[in-house]
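Researcher: Quick test of sequence recovery. Tokens follow.
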């Protein structure tokens, strides 16, 4: 194999590496509408959880993070949480309070992004995962997995999820304060 072929092969591999994390996020985006038409919801929870983990892991591991991925990933996350929550609420498996707890953190994050954009800080805002966000996502996944298997989620999960969501707020405001204090 000559040098040109080696460069071409390396370029092809890099293109594939760039595509896989975004394809995983897009796969998760497709999970949301499938919830309404398939009885195999546990499989969809598994797909959503693994694609959520591996899209970011692979992008960081292969150093192929992208602006597109930074947009698609949280949209896919919010779409899945909203769809799972709505379906289980419609079926009566979730009460209104549980629905609010499941959605409140994601609504707060969306509002934060909108406020940042309105205030003109969006282009300087570096959004990365919060530790309590990881905990909240895990709890949401456990709740949706239990619901998909036909069992009632533990009340403790909702309490912990509410706490993790509440702890996200100070982190958001600290990030916003950091951005506001930066020149630009």
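Model:
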């Amino acid at each position: 194999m000559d040098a040109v072929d080696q460069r071409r092969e390396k370029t092809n591999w890099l293109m594939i590496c760039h595509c896989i994390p975004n394809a995983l996020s897009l796969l998760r985006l497709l999970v949301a509408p499938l919830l309404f038409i398939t009885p195999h919801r546990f499989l969809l929870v598994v797909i959503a959880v693994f694609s959520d983990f591996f899209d970011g892991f692979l992008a960081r591991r292969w150093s192929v993070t992208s602006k597109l991925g930074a947009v698609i990933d949280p949209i896919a996350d919010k779409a899945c949480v909203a769809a799972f929550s709505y379906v289980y609420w419609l079926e009566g498996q979730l009460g209104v309070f549980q629905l609010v707890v499941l959605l409140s953190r994601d609504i707060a994050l969306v509002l934060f992004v909108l406020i940042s954009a309105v205030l003109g800080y969006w282009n300087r805002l570096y959004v990365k995962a919060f530790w309590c966000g990881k905990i909240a996502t895990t709890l949401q996944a456990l709740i949706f997995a239990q619901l998909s298997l036909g069992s009632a989620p533990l009340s403790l999960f909702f309490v912990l999820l509410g706490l993790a969501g509440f702890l996200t707020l100070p982190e958001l405001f600290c990030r916003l304060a950091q951005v506001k204090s930066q020149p630009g």
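The two ends are 49 Å apart (CA to CA).
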